UniProtKB/TrEMBL annotation:
One of its GO terms (molecular function) is catalytic activity. It comes from the Bacteria. The lineage of its organism: Bacteria, Bacillati, Actinomycetota, Actinomycetes, Mycobacteriales. InterPro entries: ClpP/crotonase-like_dom_sf (IPR029045), Enoyl-CoA_hydra/iso (IPR001753), Enoyl-CoA_hydra_C (IPR014748). This is Enoyl-CoA hydratase/carnithine racemase. Belongs to the enoyl-CoA hydratase/isomerase family. It holds the Pfam family ECH_1.
Length: 270
């Protein structure tokens, strides 16, 4: 079964992802390739709804997250911000939607597998690393570019990166805002890097095994792993919401966003 017309929780907005059921497997594909699968508020809300609904469906045994075209997700869709503001959607609401989505992925009782190609940036990093297994083509990369436009990481990225790779790499990614190629991310323990032509086969092999595994044992194993490594996630999500809400109203963000859109180097306040 394939659904190309997903809608937000209030049913009023078309959102940019598709779902496909293949037996016990639910495949969710971000579908905004013209914007490298940048994600807006409505899509985050509906995607969270989808993951939460799958968590209560005993027929779903594994969830696959991926992106249409050549990229996974390049973060929040800034081009949608003006329209969202006109509809009364605040930055706090966007942060809540992102946090709810990441928490839904982490808390899902079934394994979640992320398949990454091209760019995984911004909140896309949090969405991807919230998954239990992350497979990425060797020519792909992770990028926490928030600092380049006067913002801070969100989507739980600070906790998710540090839990897998440690504080030094988390700090390097967050404070320098530079690309981390998939092979380097793999060496740091963030993901499994796979030759591009082998990515689909590797993902399918893992998904097939998980789909036919012992559901309750997988659920309890996932829960124990999360308790051992992500105890600070809720506090991190709260700190990110507070900090990002402040920064989104700052002159540095205005300068950073303007510089990005006009393709020049930002000049931040002294």
């Amino acid at each position: 079964m394939r659904d190309n017309d997903s809608s937000s929780a209030n049913g009023s907005a078309t959102v940019r992802f598709t779902t496909e059921r293949d037996g016990r497997i639910l495949r969710v594909t971000l579908d905004n390739p013209g914007r490298k699968n940048a994600i807006d508020y409505d899509t985050m809300v509906a995607l969270g709804d989808t993951i939460l609904a799958a968590a209560t469906d005993s027929a779903v045994r594994v969830i696959v997250l991926t992106g249409a075209g050549g990229d996974f997700c390049t973060g929040a869709d800034l081009s949608a911000s003006a329209g969202e503001a006109q509809r009364g959607i605040t930055s706090e609401m966007v942060m809540d939607a992102a946090n709810r989505l990441v928490r839904a992925i982490v808390d899902a009782p079934v394994p979640v597998v992320a398949r990454l190609r091209g760019a995984t940036a911004g909140v896309g990093v949090g969405i991807a690393l919230a998954a239990d297994l992350v497979y990425a083509s060797e020519d792909s990369y992770l990028l926490l570019a928030f600092i380049n436009i006067g913002l801070m990481p969100d989507g739980g990225a600070a906790a998710l990166v540090a839990a897998a790779a440690g504080r030094p790499l988390a700090a390097e990614m967050a404070l320098l805002g530079e690309r981390l190629p998939a092979p380097a991310a793999a060496r740091a323990g963030l993901l499994t890097a796979v030759p591009a032509d082998e990515l689909d086969a590797r993902v399918q092999a893992a998904v097939t095994k998980l789909a036919h595994g012992p559901r309750r044992a997988l659920e309890l194993t996932k829960r124990a792993l999360n308790q051992a490594t992500l105890g600070a996630l809720d506090a991190t999500l709260a700190a990110e919401k507070t900090g990002q809400s402040e920064l989104l109203g700052s002159p540095d963000f205005v300068e950073g966003a303007t510089a990005m859109l006009t393709k020049r180097k930002p000049v931040f306040a002294d």
